[in-house]
Design goal:
CATH topology of the largest domain: Rossmann fold
Number of helices: 10
Strand content: 15-25%
CATH architecture of the largest domain: 3-Layer(aba) Sandwich
CATH class of the largest domain: Alpha Beta
Number of strands: 10
Strand order of the largest sheet: 6-7-8-3-9-10
Bound molecules: adenosine-5'-triphosphate, magnesium ion
Largest sheet: 6 strands, mixed
Order of helices and strands: EEEHEEHEHHHHEHEHEEHH
């Protein structure tokens, strides 16, 4: 069977800067993979290329065996990949429920027109990520950072995704909020979701991942179990030493 996500010899240049340098990796079905590296290593740029927000300079991106390197972002979302953003990007004027509704649009335009069933789905999604019924009518300005991260996750789930890319999901959260998001990810792993997770919070990342890929200057410097990557000499000098 083809892998949910397969990246091969990916290169992204911004003018003279090589942001992704001949990067290859595979994420297997139901696997949860960590992507780590120092600030500016190119983690977010990898996500942007998987989603089609930036076109790769060369190399290929396959989703369930299909080359998506030239597909539009909505097409990629339809094929089952979706991401969250390092800085949450909700629609400020919309409520929690309305923001989740927007996430469903590419897949479910027809149901969106038939309001009621869709409304129930939004409520279900909002509650499943940990919102209280009293939160559903709030706007993003009234939410904590933890709630904004939950909203990012719910919007991603609303697309019907099966491969979820999480960019710095733990950034800016309290210890209690980190625990809540981590248990949400664990639950989704049990339900069969495939994950690629970027996190500077290695302590939070460790129990969530089957393997870790470390990059620096856009190139892979290590890949293996969490422990193997933490013990890698290049990772220690370029990332952990500097941290
Ligand atoms: N649109 C862009 N135009 C030019 N350079 C860019 C662009 N986006 C990113 N870069 C550069 O590409 C490199 C990788 O950036 P990226 O944001 O992917 O790193 P990152 O690993 O996500 O960093 P952080 O941990 O700080 O989030 C950096 O040098 C960055 O300045
Ligand atoms: Mg980033």
């Amino acid at each position: 069977m083809s892998h949910p996500l397969q990246i091969d010899k990916l290169v992204k240049r911004f003018g003279g800067l090589v942001a992704t340098d001949n990067l290859s990796f595979t994420v297997e079905q139901g696997q949860s993979v960590g992507l780590i590296g120092p600030n500016g290593a190119g983690k977010t740029t990898v996500f942007a290329q998987i989603m089609g927000e930036h076109r790769q300079t060369s190399g290929s991106i396959r989703l369930y065996g299909k080359d998506i390197g030239a597909a539009s972002t909505p097409e990629r979302i339809r094929l089952g990949v979706s991401r969250t953003y390092q800085v949450p990007r909700p629609f400020a004027e919309m409520t929690v429920l309305e923001n989740i509704r927007v996430g469903q649009m590419p897949n479910n335009l027809w149901q969106m027109i038939r309001r009621k069933p869709q409304h129930e789905k939004e409520v279900e999604l909002a509650l499943s990520v940990g919102f209280l019924p009293s939160d559903l009518g709030k706007t993003p300005g009234e939410l904590s950072m933890g709630d904004l991260r939950k909203l990012e996750m719910a919007r991603t789930m609303a697309t019907g995704t099966s491969v979820m890319l999480l960019d710095e999901v733990f950034a800016g959260l309290t210890v209690a909020e980190i625990a809540q998001i981590a248990s949400l990810i664990q639950q989704m792993r049990k339900d069969g979701m495939t994950f690629l997770i970027v996190s500077h919070d290695l302590k939070a990342l460790e129990p969530l991942v089957d393997k870790v890929i470390a990059i620096n200057y856009g190139a892979r410097i290590a890949e293996g179990t969490f422990a193997e990557v933490m013990n890698n000499a290049d990772v220690r000098s370029s990332y952990l030493g500097a941290a």
